[in-house]
Amino acid sequence: MTRNDLVREFRIATQDQVAPYLWDTADIVRWLEEAEREACVRRRLLHESALPDVCQIVIAPGVAVYPLHPKLYELDHIGFKEEGDTRRRPIEQVSTGYLDNTVPEWRDRAGCPRYAVQGDTTLRLVPTPDQAGTLFLEGYRLPLEVAGATTFEIHQAHHRNLLDWALFRAFSVPDADTLDLNRSEVAEKAFAEYFGDRPDSDLRRLTRTDLDQHNVAWP
Q1: Residues 6+ apart with CB under 8 A from 101
Q2: Are residues 159 and 137 in the same domain?
Q3: Is 103 or 208 the better-scoring residue by pLDDT?
Q4: pLDDT one-digit tens code per residue, 187-210
Q5: Would the pTM of this model clear 0.85, i.e. be above it?
Q6: Percent of the chain, pLDDT > 70?
Q7: Would you list the DSSP string of 48-61?
Q8: Are residues 58 and 137 in the same domain?
Q9: Most CB atoms closer than 10 Å: which of 33, 55, 150, 170?
Q10: Domain coverage including residue 93
């Protein structure tokens, strides 16, 4: 389904088919785009492993922290290839707590990266790289922003269920003509039943390697 198709479905569902409309088309489109992003976070619908702009970071010696692509929110693979190498080396994703307990003086170390700590918008390599190279990432992302796009990135099987989020947002607008908290609650519940509840802010908890802690010997 296209975005226009879902806008028509929205107007049928709300009996808002005659101008002047209760809800602007621009608002409905914005809620549908928001719904797709919500669905991606809740169900991990878009996995990226190929797009260079999303999945590759050029690494410079002496620089440990790098920005992640703004659409990439959860990593499930990290690899590092030094200049001249033919194969990448796996990077283990951990927390700073893990490093504090297992890797002495990790903040002051330099060498070939073995670990990575994901922040909200950045990735920190440990030890700090002492050679140039390329970091290769794979993980889950939000839909990309494509000018003039008329459809959605997620599979068409999910499209109709995006309507529930738009209805939830529409009936929660504080307007005397449209506010209906009961219908808003019903629509939000339907969206959650299909796509699941929103996870907490620590989306890396399932991909991070924080297992049994023990000291690590550095070469």
Answers
A1: 213
A2: no
A3: 103
A4: 999 999 999 999 887 655 545 555
A5: yes
A6: 91
A7: ESS-HHHHEEEE-T
A8: yes
A9: 170
A10: 47-141
Residues 35 and 61 occupy one common structural domain: no
**Which tokens is 91 given?**
């990077």
The residue behind tokens 């990135």 is 153
Instruction: Say if residue 73 is exposed, middle or buried (CB neighbours under 10 Å; 0-12, 13-18, 19+).
Output: buried
Domains of the chain: total: 2
Tokens of 198: 């929103």
Contact 80, 91 (CB under 8 A): yes
Q: Both 158 and 174 in a single domain?
A: yes
What six digits make up the tokens of 34?
């928001």
The answer to whether the CB of 138 falls within 8 A of the CB of 47 is yes
Q: How far apart are CA 43 and CA 71, in angstroms?
A: 15
- Whether residue 33 lies inside any domain: the answer is yes
Q: Which residue has the tokens 């879902």?
A: 6
Query: What does the buried/exposed string (b/e) look like for 178-192 if buried means 16 or more CB atoms within 10 Å of the residue's CB?
Result: bebeebbeebbebbb
Q: Between helices 181-195 and 25-43, what is the axis angle to 10°?
A: 40
* Nearest by Cα to 159 from 191, 196, 130: 191
Distances (CA, A) of 215 to 64, 194, 196: 22, 44, 39
3-state secondary structure labels for all residues of 128-182: EECCCEEEEEEEEECCCCCCCCCCCCCCHHHHHHHHHHHHHHHCCCCCCCCCCHH
Output the pLDDT for position 204. Answer: 53
